[in-house]
Amino acid sequence: MKVLAIDTSNYPLGIALIDDNQVIGEYITNIKKNHSVRVMPAIQTLCKECDVKPAELEKIIVAEGPGSYTGVRIGVTIAKTLAWTLQIPLVGVSSLEVLAASAARYFPGYVAPLFDARRGQIYTGLYRFKNGSLETVKQDQLVLSADWAEHLKELSEPVLFVGNDLPIHKEALAEIMGDQARFAHSTENNPRPGELAHLGMYREPVDVHTFVPNYIRLAEAEAKWLEGKKENEAK
Predict the structure, then answer these.
(1) Is 85 exposed, middle or buried (0-12, 13-18, 19+ CB in 10 A)?
(2) Is the pLDDT of residue 125 over 90?
(3) Which pLDDT belongs to residue 231?
(4) Is residue 188 within 8 Å of residue 113, measured between CB atoms?
(5) Model-wide pTM > 0.85
(6) From the centroid of its chain, how far is CA 6?
(7) CA-CA distance, 189 to 104, in Å (whole number)?
(8) What is the pLDDT of residue 134?
(9) Which domains does the chain have, with CATH numbers?
(10) How sure is the predictor about 153, in pLDDT bands with cuts at 50, 70 and 90?
(11) Averaged pLDDT for residues 24-33
(12) Which secondary-structure segment (H or E) carries 207?
């Protein structure tokens, strides 16, 4: 089975091609550049290098969020368009789950991937490898990093934190958890699109027309609009 995986949910842009269980190509960058103008050329380049024609693809897998609202929307829109055009299944996978899988395979404990959500908040979840596969221990959520650290401290086990936004929250996490907090090496902080492809390869497909990103919370502009609307209705 030839699978194309797409992740534009944060600064890293990741594209992967898998043929059965073999990763035949990966493209990863971690730079502040517009995904909307880069993702299709990246897909075309990778397919050309790997001698894979679009008609040979059998499934599209996309990182569905959380993350950057614009980034998540770009990836999901392109994935839906490709799946609909090629008439092949579409699968969505948590962006946090992808990040956890990229670092957790050889860590003998809990793994907490995180993306910064501003104002001391993070998008995070809790995972661990068990019997050769990644297991979700705590569902993805939006939480204050300090509250998350207090909660994880109760587990009394090492927790590996991973993500490019670690420098923003590392001090707060370490202050509360001490040696129980472990931090991934910088080479592990980019989510691997090859892991994304493997995670989604055998999952049930979603409906292309109704599938939407998982933002976890409303975009700030939309939240303010709804708040303003309620205030006007109350007058």
Answers:
(1) exposed
(2) yes
(3) 63
(4) no
(5) yes
(6) 10
(7) 11
(8) 94
(9) 2-94+192-223 (3.30.420.40), 96-188 (3.30.420.40)
(10) very high
(11) 94
(12) none
